[in-house]
Amino acid sequence: MPATARVRLAEEAELDLLGAVYERASFHPRLAAIDRFARAALGGEVFVAERDGELVGASGCAHFGATGWVGGVAVVPEARRAGLGRALTEAAVARLRERGARTVQLYATDMGRPVYERLGFVAEGTCVTLGGPWRPGRRAAGVRAARGDDLQPSLVVDRQGTGEDRAALLTALWPESALVAEADGEIRGYHLPSPWRPSGATVAADLSSGLALIEATGGLLNGAELSLSIPDGNSPAIRALQARGQTERSRVTRMRLGPPLPWRPSAIFSTFNFFWG
Questions:
Q1: What sign results for the dihedral spanned by CA atoms 152, 156, 157, 159?
Q2: Measured between alpha carbons, how far is 210 from 138 in angstroms, rounded to an integer?
Q3: Alpha-carbon distance 206 to 188, whole Å?
């Protein structure tokens, strides 16, 4: 009979091994790099499940003050049905609670959702991923490359849209290839590319600014496939993209543990990823 697995903090040298763990669990290996970034820049932590000296699971978290996210919860097939998914989630939640997060969030697959429900997480709708080759349309008016001094007004837009203080995240990556939508001298939205996946975060105060940012980012792809994950609460954006030939590829459930946040789904035109929203 195999030994009982234990969940513990990941050691620094083990972060390089997590890509293989995620692959064995049928997740994308890039989650290992996201784990590393969350621990280094977002006040997060990484946990592993170890059995007989072998890593058989992982989870991570990112901390944004009063809120936090759990992500990358994965267990290899041969170690499932032993409570490790629950234990890895509980470890990440406990760390976020220690650091002051009152509301903890995550995106759940159909397989993971029952585990999170048993821990008290409640559903807040779904997030739909749309994809397909991008067909350029009209020029995106009012969109330009971001500058350093655009960060603070973009943080205001982000907080109003997400209900969270994600200054650590945006500051760590700004401006890189970021774009902003501007009208009458006011920043109305931003797009910040992700180092780990196509597209990135797009948050805007209104529909026209959000769609203009998507148009601008899609125009940079030279015919490559665009991938956007949008809350179902932003149905106008979803319909507009479907009219442009984008089709649904997958969907996950947004869940929270703790008080609801004053977020605006209609302001989210693309999540950064399924690790921290």
A1: positive
A2: 14
A3: 7
